[in-house]
Amino acid sequence: MAHKKGQGSCRNGRRSNPKYRGIKCYAGESVQSGSIIVRQLGSRFHPGRGVRMGNDYTLYAVREGVVEFQSNRKVHVVERPAPATA
Length: 86
Prior knowledge:
Number of helices: 0
Shape: rod-shaped
Number of strands: 8
Oligomer: single chain
């Protein structure tokens, strides 16, 4: 029985590329249609009004507006309030 591994073996050689997951647009930020809001693994956050979920659970905006997060982990894109004119 060998006491050393053969050549070419590497115990820690399984480094994968980073996936860049996380929240991309925070609450109060304005987004355009198609903007990615959250990149996630599984459905941690759920789509609400103005938001859709992609095949890889990515949440993205389907209309222009401002991002809102609810306490039950729902993400909404609400329309911007009209600018006040004096």
